[in-house]
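notes to self, project folder thing:

trying the whole complex as one job this time. last attempt i did each chain seperately and stitching them together was a nightmare. two parts in total, labels are on each line so i dont mix them up again. if this works i'll redo the older ones the same way
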Amino acid sequence: MVKKFGDFTAVKELDLTIHDGEFLVLLGPSGCGKTTTLRCISGLEIPTSGSIILDGVDVTDRRASQRDIAFVFQLYALYPHLTAYKNIAFPLKAQHVPKEEMDKEVDRVVKMLRIEHILDRKPKHLSGGDMQRVALGRALVRHPKVFLLDEPIGTLDAAFREEMRTELKALHVDINATSVYVTHDQEEAMSMGDRIAVMNAGVLQQIGEPHEVYANPVNLFVARFIGSPGMNLLACKPETGENGQLGLRMRGNNELLELPGTLQQLLKEKVERDHSLVLGVRPEDTTVHTAEQEHSLAAEVYVTEKMGSYHIVDLSYGEEIVRARTSAYVDMEIGQNVRMSFDMGRVRFFDSESGQSIMN
Amino acid sequence: MQKKKGPLLVDARGNQVNFNPMRDVNLVRLFVFPTIILLIVINIFPLLWSLVLSFTDYSARLQTEWGVNPEWEGTKNYVALFTNPDIWLKFITTGKYVLMSVGGEMILGFGLALLLQTKFAGRGIIYVLLVLPMTMSPVIVGLMWKLFMDPNWGMFNFMLGLGRIDWAQDPARNLYAIVIVDIWMWTPFVMLLSMAGLSAVPQYLYEAAEVDRASWWFKFSRITLPMTYPLLLIALIFRVMDAFKIFDLPMGLVGRGSGAPPLLSMEVYSQTFMTWRTSYGSALGYIMLIVIIAITSVLIKYLNKAKH
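result (full assembly):
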């Protein structure tokens, strides 16, 4: 599908299949078109072209109310004048479900979410987490074909967000309903999604299981966006060294980095001579040495971020910054000259012009 | 120590301070006092004075002579009022008028506001045209509609194809004429408040309801109405207060002849300024005031409830 707002194209030729019972996360920075995609699936927006197939039925021209979907909004969208109970019962009441059955369904959901004690409160007397639970309850009270969740825990504070993350995931495992979850938080996406669809500027960049997207990003955008901190990206060019072996001329300090045979083979096959590349390596695959080391590059400690269980050491390498994840028991001084090496089995190469990975 | 120039004042601790008219607190007083004085002179004193007069036999036409005019009569005026069989007709007529005109205004005003929610070409112009009646003087509106409803050459009957109906002078019809004109004039007011109420209902609630498979009517009755209810109530309070004491519009449209509809405010006017029974008019005015306060306080109670 394509979705345009006037001249602005919010979603460009998106082709996405979501499997039954799957928890798919739409991930991307603000304005990347992920919420628009979700709203198109829900029927709150109509795609400019293309079609939306739900359970084998083309629902493109159907209104949201005719699609049998549940939507959890970013700001909860609770009815402010109704109590928590009435909010949850609203979808059933709208369908004129008999009172007895309604009470039973609400009771089921309320027990699942453990919110029995707040049922007679109105939204303004609820905490963020409880509002979220009520909003979830309103979605769960029916048995819709698909759950659509638009950054449902984005406004909660950090500790509570983690708790809700676990709860949501457990809930999904319990009811096994197809869910599409929108977020800009890659950590949330990694921890919750069965699969992640990374979007940028209205274009689907990559879709795959979290580990696949993390370990093997298809382009520079995904490499930068996934991971905290993102992948280190170093400009380089393949060059044959004095020993006749193919190595990498690093732009940072103009050193030649030796390569293992497999990578030499790969570059020979895939890259034309003198073509600029970007080497991508995760901070946890980057090692900092205080002593001389083979196949390493000279760098200088720029700053150390102490994260508690580990440190992120920012190394300045020429004009580039390389982040390495080290043990929390390693102390580095700012300005200290060190060597850094990469786990060559895990490095990735990207075409510096197109930004695409050359690994596949 | 050298004495400072300028007027000296004493603060709470007995220290002498310079009076500085530009200090915040002095500025506030400077602006507030004239208003309060003005209020007392032209509002509060007459209000209380008319209450005193309502217990006397005062007539504004005669020379004021203490003990003679006004002479203290106790509750005589009030007793006379409540034992006058005509007065109930006036209350009923006024009530009927309030019910019809305010009811019409609320339904039409809210309906128009709902219609104006949709965006369409020329919406701005229609909006301005609809609001115009409200900006005019009621007497002028009355006089204008008197011409418009004239049985011989008025456009009103002609446009509706009604023949020669004398709206303004026929005692069986002139109350309805006033109702029609009042609705024409004050529907925009209800519309404006309704629009404010409607625009305050967040769009995402309708989206949530749409996803929840609510019908149009369900959305209207469960979201739109309850969420705009407080502002509708405010519109209702203003309109009821205003309609209950309507005077200028019927004065312009119908005049004060014998065929004029028996509205309370018209009675106050004719008692006070036509037959010069000033004290009797004051008493009736006070009864009206009490009725209006009673009705609005009930409505305000509902408003406070709605706010919670």
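what i see at first glance: Chain B has a mean pLDDT of 89.
need to look closer tmrw
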